[in-house]
Amino acid sequence: MAGADRISALPEKTKVSILSRLPITDAVRSSVLSHSWRHLWTLLPGFRADLNSHRGPIRSAEHVSRIISSLRGPIRHFYLWADLLHNPPSCLQHFLDLIFQKDGLWVLSVCCCDGTMAPVQLPSFRSLKYLRLDFISISLPSDFAGFEQLTSLKLQSVCISLPDLQSLIDGSKKLTSIELYIEHYLFPDDTANEQPLSLTFNCPFLKYLRFHIGEEEVDVEPRILSVRCLESAYVTAGTHYSPSEELVWIGAAALKFMADIAHVSHLSLNFDILLCLSRVDVPHTLGIHFRQLKCLKLYGEMCCTDRRMFKVLCCLLRSMPFLEILELQCNEPFLGYEEGERPNESDPIPPNEYKKKEDGYLCLDQTLRRVTISMKKLRGLKDLMWMIHFILLNANALELIKITHSDDRFKVRSRIFEELCKVEKASTDAHVVFEDINNVAVMINWYNSSRT
């Protein structure tokens, strides 16, 4: 029949599903559509809120509180992006307490985008499965018994005491993913100088672990007890303002940590980890054998090489006999290093030393097939040419080096072509492909360049 309201005739569950895909303020406005829609939005299982005093439809903490209080059923998910410059920091605690009264929360994600580090005591959500907190100072209640259903934990730039963090991990036995970047560890005055301090991981179902070593006021070393299901590890370090003795400590801690997770199939390291390892007297193969590792990713600010960095790369490759893929993700160089901390070309590796002179590089001899390099500007590739030369000269099974970039300067690319065409390849099947932001690819075939 013409003019029939077919949307209102839909089942209630379907209409609620439609509203859940709208911004919460638009879902609330739907109450004016008709009598049957008046309270429909209060059946939503959760919502996302952008609490911003200067822009956006939600500008006050009272508005968020009213929405939480109006929802009738259990709140399953709550996402909050909060600017607290003009709202009381205590409002976050109020939101969580209101949600806790309704019970049933599955997903909690809160970010203080202004970096205020608002204090929050986490309620004991019995059904919580996913927890992400950014720029918040966290504490746990004295009777905290853990999150029995939690599978994913992500803490980014937070403040928390080491005992609380340990309780949070120990009380969440079903964790499959952990990402930790602790801004500051909070310690009582009488324990701030106790050494050694460590964080223990006893997570039988853990598959993904990201841990940041260094840059905190107190050094905390990760200890692995049981992570038999771990498949992928992401290890980072902060060294921008670290003294040389701190680099040695970070390098030793990273070496021990990697030995504990040597069974992973994917490993990511930032270049700062390599810098720290170069300050340690590493053995021939780091003393570690990554026998299941298939993919290694190195990322971060680009850095030149000296003999120590070159030695670390060689030790890494000797430690990974079945490596198939090497990924390099390069950012712009960081300018805040103190003099003498960043690798430089004071002791460069001459090109005639790029050819390996000893055995033990099983991955180069048999398995390494693909190398990908991602960067913004091609001029930064000069800091990685030593690595490209080394791989081309030694990787017998190499099929492809792919370089993606957003730089379209033809002269820069031409100079790189000219240099690479002079390199002797160990693999006759190896190709080097440049791909720009427009997905235009140019391939070097060692005789001339061709557009594909």
UniProtKB/TrEMBL annotation:
Superkingdom in the source lineage: Eukaryota
Regions crossing the membrane: none
InterPro entries associated with the record: F-box-like_dom_sf, F-box_dom, FBL13/AtMIF1-like, LRR_dom_sf, LRR_FXL15/At3g58940/PEG3-like
Residues covered by the F-box domain: 7-44
Domain F-box/LRR-repeat protein 15/At3g58940/PEG3-like LRR: 117-326
Alphabetical list of Pfam families matching this protein: F-box, LRR_At5g56370
Protein name: F-box domain-containing protein
